Amino acid sequence: MSTKDKLIERFKKLPKDFTFEELVHLMTSLGFSITNKGATSGSRIGFIKGSLLIKMHRPHPQNIVGYKTLKEIQALLKKEKIWEN
What we know:
Distance between the termini: 16 Å
Number of strands: 3
Strand content: 15-25%
Largest sheet: 3 strands, antiparallel
Order of helices and strands: HHEEEH
Number of helices: 3
Strand order of the largest sheet: 1-2-3
Radius of gyration: 12 Å
Helix content: 25-40%
């Protein structure tokens, strides 16, 4: 099993300790690029693939992505058929 496959399996379980770096690695391995809308974006970031834009806030002060955010991203990936569950 590749690192990407292991990360996808971990993401599917919606762990409470999924880090922002893991999410960035997962999304880039799925073909997304990361963007922040300039110097005034603050903690807002987006993942872009074609016409699909997934917006979120960079987690702070801790580096852990929230359960609700993970669940919303998972639902969007399923809806857009980026990956099948």
